[in-house]
TrEMBL record:
Record text on cofactor binding: Binds 1 zinc ion per subunit.
Role, per record: Is required not only for elongation of protein synthesis but also for the initiation of all mRNA translation through initiator tRNA(fMet) aminoacylation.
Species, as recorded: Halorutilus salinus
CDD domains hit by this protein: Anticodon_Ia_Met, MetRS_core, tRNA_bind_EcMetRS_like
Lineage, broadest ranks: Archaea, Methanobacteriati, Methanobacteriota, Stenosarchaea group, Halobacteria
Family membership noted in the UniProt record: Belongs to the class-I aminoacyl-tRNA synthetase family. MetG type 1 subfamily.
Protein name from the UniProt record: Methionine--tRNA ligase
Main location: cytoplasm
Length: 721
């Protein structure tokens, strides 16, 4: 990120498919994207936040055909749904368009013509899947089969669900039609191609300079090193942006991943038109005087870090400066999957139950690092809300405001103590460091840690007892408490805007949304409005009801599968371009068994687990195959404070970075581990060790922790089989 606070920033969120209602997978990117945007504004930066609905592509066509509707009718319905739904979770775009509007059509065709004019588009024959029974070709999600890269049967049209690789038409092996279920054939068809292979040097430099999360850099590096294939940019469909063929010799439409990201530009154009300066969009996309940050799901890194910048570069547009790519979403430690019922739906499961937006916003942003997998369970949700929001932040603010309101009829006079001033300064620094590092979790923790200090401060000083003994001292304490309450609400506004607004209303401090971090040091002065509780406890009965609903849904879907229903129906797990994480059957993450919180027990446990000879009960191969064992690269390593044996590592596992707690201290120097390729198990349960979540298990041999690695140069994320 640029250090120049005068540089305007454009933040974009990946486009949801206008194909179904919102769920937890969508929120995984839109809430952090909104949080990041608000945090930038807290620094006084000029920010524009845009997105839009993706109304094209085969999933929408397939869904519309199943419902007997026109694609435009279906897509328009869901575009309007998302447009109305985002404000309900306090996600506020400056512009929210859609790919089927005139601005996007015009801009898309202009860019494709530029690609042609610059010599990067050519015509060629290619093999495409064809269903002889239906007598039609099978673009993208109309075909399924075996992935040519990983060999798994998770290939669906233009993407493999197992390894996440983009697939070109004709790549899928053993293709099957999703229309009739019959084996498909391959036939030749004329298409247009973008000469991506000629842009290797540009893309290599682009990725090296890219900021954001490490997965957005590391994955493209591997693909570029493997060698880039030219990219087919047309499809044999009736729905989409027509290929700009001035000669009229083709009726193909552009591949959805051509026009979808161009909506970022189109939406910026619409924003500029509405704000009164139609050319204002060009400072973001033409003259390089600003910065562009994309917030996406980890399943679409290839599209945003390879295809998209290549198109922009050739067409003469500005390329992204940073890409923030999320990890996967899991439900109760299992892969998120709408088709299998393992999903939490925004309307029926959350908003209709009366939960305010702040709760889910806090959970999503604070649970784990953005590029790590996010695990959701209703019990964890209840625990975070009750312990952190109700008992820490909410309780501290309410007690401070109520005592001051009732005892002093407003904010008492006082002086900011050095201890309090230092804590506020530390929180502000932590907040700003988080923004600069594209780390929204750190943004949330900065404000919550300050509230935690406030809770400890008021407990230690007991102003309710001081009111009878030393009223002046009680006033000083409450003066400092209100200062902390104000500052913590200000720093938490990007995460929980509605709660922050209520706090500032109680303190009569004006507009928290327009305030910047500088105001964190300004104490509360004047009257107070009637205090109110910020949050309500989430009761056990409600959690039990929601968990039962989830389990019933999973059971119903599993029963449907047993009865032969085809779960891969065009709508499966592809409701959103980048917000919903793919339902990869990787399962949960786990912690290093050598590192237990009680280190004495850790040594005893290791002795119990270790045997002097091989053997024991044999297990079937399919049980071994359930383990997701991967090559990983150590990104950072540091000692765990106050621990005799633990190191805290961040490792790149190909689709994101995992935090690992491992008993390597004294056996491996942290700085020597950085850059090492190691072997990890990624689908064990997350373990909390010495207060840290361990999201994978690092494999090592013997008492000296000889790290397992590879003899070759396998990239992070490569599966061990």
């Amino acid at each position: 990120m640029t250090d120049d606070e005068d540089t305007p920033t454009l933040v974009t969120c990946a486009l949801p498919y206008a194909n179904g209602k919102a769920h937890l997978g969508h929120l995984r990117t839109y809430i952090p994207g909104d949080t990041y945007t608000r945090a930038l504004r807290k620094q006084g930066r000029e920010v524009t936040f845009v997105s839009g609905s993706d109304m094209h592509g085969t999933p929408i066509v397939v869904n519309a055909e199943e419902q007997g509707r026109e694609p435009e009718d279906l897509a328009t319905e869901y575009h309007e749904y998302f447009e109305e739904t985002f404000p309900r979770i306090d996600v506020e775009f400056d512009s929210y368009g859609n790919t089927h509007d005139d601005t996007n059509f015009r801009r898309t065709q202009e860019i494709v013509r530029a690609l042609e004019d610059n010599g990067y588009v050519y015509e060629d024959e290619m093999m495409v899947a064809y269903d002889p029974e239906a007598d039609r070709t099978l673009p993208d999600r109309y075909v399924k089969g075996t992935c040519p890269y990983c060999g798994e049967e998770g290939a669906r049209g233009d993407e493999c669900d197992e390894c996440g690789r983009h697939l070109e038409p004709g790549d899928i092996e053993d293709p099957v039609s999703k229309i009739t279920g019959a084996p498909a054939e391959y036939v030749e068809q004329t298409h247009r191609f973008f000469a991506l292979s000629e842009l290797r040097d540009f893309l290599s430099d682009f990725v090296d300079d890219l900021e954001g999360t490490s997965n957005a850099r590391n994955q493209p590096k591997g693909w570029i090193e493997e060698g880039l294939q030219d990219w087919c940019i047309t499809r044999d469909l009736d729905w989409g942006v027509p290929y700009p063929d001035d000669d009229g010799d083709t009726d193909l439409v552009l591949y959805v991943w051509v026009d979808a990201p161009i909506e970022y530009i189109a939406s910026t154009e619409d924003w500029a038109e509405r704000t009164g300066d139609g050319d204002e969009w060009e400072r973001y996309w033409r003259d390089g005087s600003s910065e562009i940050v994309h917030v996406i799901g980890g399943d679409i890194i290839q599209h945003h870090c390879v295809f998209w910048p290549a198109m922009l570069h050739v067409a003469g547009y500005s390329t992204p400066d940073a890409v923030m790519a999320s990890g996967l979403v899991k439900i109760n430690d299992s892969a998120f999957s709408t088709s299998r019922g393992r999903a939490v739906w925004l309307d029926e499961d959350y908003l209709d139950e009366g939960f305010p937006a702040d709760l889910i916003r806090y959970y999503i942003v604070s649970y784990t690092g953005f590029e790590n997998d996010l695990n959701f369970s209703w019990s964890l949700f209840q625990e975070r809300v009750n312990n952190e929001l109700v008992d820490t932040f909410g309780n501290f603010v309410y007690r401070s405001a109520l005592l001051a309101h009732d005892s002093f009829d407003g904010a008492p006079d006082g002086e900011l103590e050095d201890e309090v001033s230092d804590e506020i300064g530390t929180a502000v620094d932590r907040f700003e460091d988080g923004v600069e590092a594209y780390n929204v979790k750190e943004v949330a923790e900065a404000g919550m840690a300050l509230a935690g200090f406030g809770n400890e401060y008021i407990q230690r000083n007991e102003p309710w007892n001081l009111l009878d003994e030393d009223e002046d001292r009680a006033g000083d304490v409450l003066y400092n408490c209100l200062a902390v309450a104000k500052a913590s609400a200000l720093l938490l506004e990007p995460v929980m805007p509605s709660a922050a607004e209520r706090v500032w209303a109680m303190l009569d401090e004006g507009d928290v949304h327009a305030a910047t971090v500088d105001e964190a040091f300004e104490a509360v002065d004047g009257g107070l409005n009637e205090p109110e509780h910020l949050f309500e406890q989430v009761e056990d009965e409600k959690i039990e009801t929601l968990e039962e609903r989830l389990q019933e849904r999973i059971g119903d879907e599993e029963e449907d599968e047993e009865n032969g229903r085809d779960e891969e129906d065009g709508r499966e797990d592809e409701d959103e371009k980048g917000g919903e994480e793919k339902a990869e059957e990787d399962g949960g993450a786990g912690g290093d068994e050598e590192a237990e919180e009680d280190e004495k027990r850790e040594g005893e446990k290791a002795e119990e687990d270790e045997t002097e000879e091989t053997g024991g009960d044999e297990i079937p191969f399919d049980r071994f195959d359930e383990l997701d064992i991967r090559v990983a690269q150590v990104e950072s390593a540091e000692a765990v404070e106050d621990s005799d044996s633990l190191l805290l590592l961040n490792v790149d596992v190909g689709d994101g970075t995992r935090q690992v707690v491992a008993g390597l201290k004294g056996l491996h120097a942290p700085d020597e581990l950085v850059g090492e390729r190691v072997i990890v198990v990624t689908n064990l349960e997350t373990a909390t060790i010495f207060g840290y979540d361990s999201e994978a298990m690092l494999l090592a041999a013997g008492d000296d922790a000889d790290l397992l690695t590879t003899a070759g140069v396998s990239e992070p994320g490569t599966r061990v089989k």
